[in-house]
Specification:
alpha/beta; Rossmann fold; three-stranded parallel sheet; two-stranded antiparallel sheet; 5 strands; globular; Phosphoglycerate mutase; Phosphoglycerate_Mutase; fructose-2,6-bisphosphate 2-phosphatase activity; His_Pase_superF_clade-1; hydrolase
Length: 189
């Protein structure tokens, strides 16, 4: 993680230091786990020292485009559909459609499409719901990635939030979750 990334994690830890978390989850990518541990280290109430780490909360898998300039990747994915940027794809279509376009543009078709992405992510959401330490009124920390956050907000935000702009690193988004629904309460705070 960069020094800026560590500073973002410390800043978020300070913002959340007075929230008693009943559980914590994160992506299995090192920067997400390091961020979650740093947040928990700042927490005054958490008995938790480590999050539950799971690949379910990973960023979208970009296949052939992993590690490349994503502006170029989104151009390759969107240009055949008359849109040349991620923002333009999302404005005209959706984040889900952007995933489908990227998989179609991947010469090996290894990138996750929308259905594959949500099959994985839904397993993560179910993991949270089935955790025995979580009950009505529980507070749960989830550390993931920008496009994962955008995907959650697009799906559960009821169109109330701008998903054409990436959330700031270290920003906070609040979800209300029960057995029947997930609702975005606030985004990119």
């Amino acid at each position: 993680m960069t020094e800026k990334g560590w500073q973002n994690a410390r800043d978020v830890g300070e913002k959340l230091k007075n929230i008693k978390f009943d559980a914590a989850f994160c992506s299995d990518l090192p920067r997400a786990e390091q961020t979650a541990v740093e947040i928990l280290n700042h927490n005054r109430f958490a008995k938790l020292k480590k999050p539950t780490v799971s690949p379910f909360f990973r960023e979208e898998f970009y296949g052939y485009f992993e590690g490349t300039d994503m502006n170029q990747a989104w151009y390759v994915a969107g240009a055949p559909h008359g849109v040349a940027t991620f923002k333009a794809i999302v404005e005209k279509y959706s984040i889900g459609q952007a995933k489908d376009f990227l998989k179609a543009a991947d010469p090996f078709h290894h990138a996750e499409n929308n259905q594959e992405y949500w099959k994985r992510m839904d397993q993560g959401l179910e993991l949270i719901k089935q955790t025995k330490t979580i009950h009505d009124g529980s507070k749960v920390l989830l550390v993931s990635h920008g496009n994962t956050l955008l995907s959650l907000v697009e799906r559960f935000g009821a169109g109330k939030f701008d998903v054409t702009q990436r959330p700031a690193n270290g920003s906070l988004t609040k979800l209300a979750v029960n057995d029947h629904q997930i609702q975005v309460v606030s985004f990119n705070q």
